[in-house]
User: What shape does this take?
Amino acid sequence: MLVAPAPPAPVGVTPEFLRRQVQEDSSRAGEAARSAWPWQGLVEDLSGGVGKIDVPVLVLAGSDDRVDPPQVLREHLLPLIPTATLTELDGVGHLSPLEAPDRVARHIEVFLRTL
Assistant: This one.
């Protein structure tokens, strides 16, 4: 049986208490959940479902995201959703709402004003 490693510390998350909370929450998941994500969740084909989205979509991607890098989203997600636009958050990783909450909120606010 392949076992997924414990999640790494979220380096871009501050303050420290949030970083610890993310680690604790991730570690609290059972072994089955930690193993299921990389071996099943990441390889699931969602292209049929997302291709049906016909409303405006804002995709926020951290430039330092190693899980869902902006280039991968540009190449593989955006072509499936014609109404989607991608905004890259410079210096942000995978947990953008925790790493840059004000920037995320600002982008969402601007996006909502355009609707």
Summary: Confidence is low (pLDDT under 50) at residues 1-7. Residues 16-28 form the longest helix (13 residues). The CA atoms of residues 13 and 95 lie 7 Å apart.
